[in-house]
Amino acid sequence: MEFVDTIRRRRMVRSFTADPVEPSVIDDLCDLARRAPSAGNSQGTAFLVLDQPATIARYWDLTLPEARRVTFGWPGLLQAPVLIVVAVRPATYVDRYREPDKASTGLGGDPSAWPVPYWWVDTGAAIEHVLLGAVDVGLGACLFGLFEHEPAVAAAFGVPDDWRLVASIALGHPQAGEPGRSAARPRRRIDEVVHRDTW
Q: CA-CA distance, 165 to 154, in Å (whole number)?
């Protein structure tokens, strides 16, 4: 698929078939994410892949208890055969910026030294690589946050304390379903988002 077409076709898919996704395809998507840019080539992002029914059920039990599923607007999301929990380790960036070629930046002391914490920026880039890669191979994907469930998910799946869980990606074969309410919002015009030479 042409790259521009891949970008234009990308949508958040909220309904999936139960058909499995080949492990090699998941690995390929994570490899695309691994190739995303990162500040100082810090590479502080990692991926917790849940592709077994038991681990996926455990995730949903922690984040969407049975009682809430009755009124959940996207039941097809729960059928996704793969969940990728995206994590980042801020200390990896701090450690990298202590190294001789980066020490002059002053960013190697503590995460609070970063005016813009680039680990969030870089993790977003890695996520977008997964989302676009999914479209390119004919899969659907949906990005969503963990919010207050981050500590429980981290504990349940053995995530080390110095890692932050940024978001989850549901991945699988798309099934026809209602688009999300946000899909009705029009894209801002190019002249609303591009400022030339001055704001």
A: 7
- Supply 155's token pair: 């504990």
For residue 34, report the phi and psi dihedrals to the nearest 5 degrees: -60, -25
Q: Please, which residues have CB within 8 angstroms of residue 196's CB and are 6 or more apart in sequence?
A: none
Q: Which fold is adopted by the domain 3-177? A: NADH Oxidase (3.40.109)
As given in the structure block, the two tokens for residue 111 are 């995460």
Find the largest Cα–Cα distance for the chain. Answer: 55
Half-sphere exposure of 50 (CA within 13 A, CB side): 23
Residue 10 contacts residue 132 (beta carbons within 8 Å)? yes
Are 97 and 118 within 8 A, CB to CB?
no
Whole-angstrom Cα distance, residue 114 to residue 108? 9
pLDDT tens, residue order, the chain (199 aa): 698 888 888 999 999 999 999 999 999 999 999 999 999 999 999 999 999 999 999 999 999 999 999 999 999 999 999 999 999 999 999 999 999 999 999 999 999 999 999 999 999 999 999 999 999 999 999 999 999 999 999 999 999 999 999 999 999 999 976 665 666 788 899 999 999 999 9
Angle (CA) 15-153-91 rounded to 5° is 115
Contact (CB, 8 A) for 130 and 33 = yes
Parse the chain into domains and list their residue ranges: 3-177
For 35, which DSSP code? T
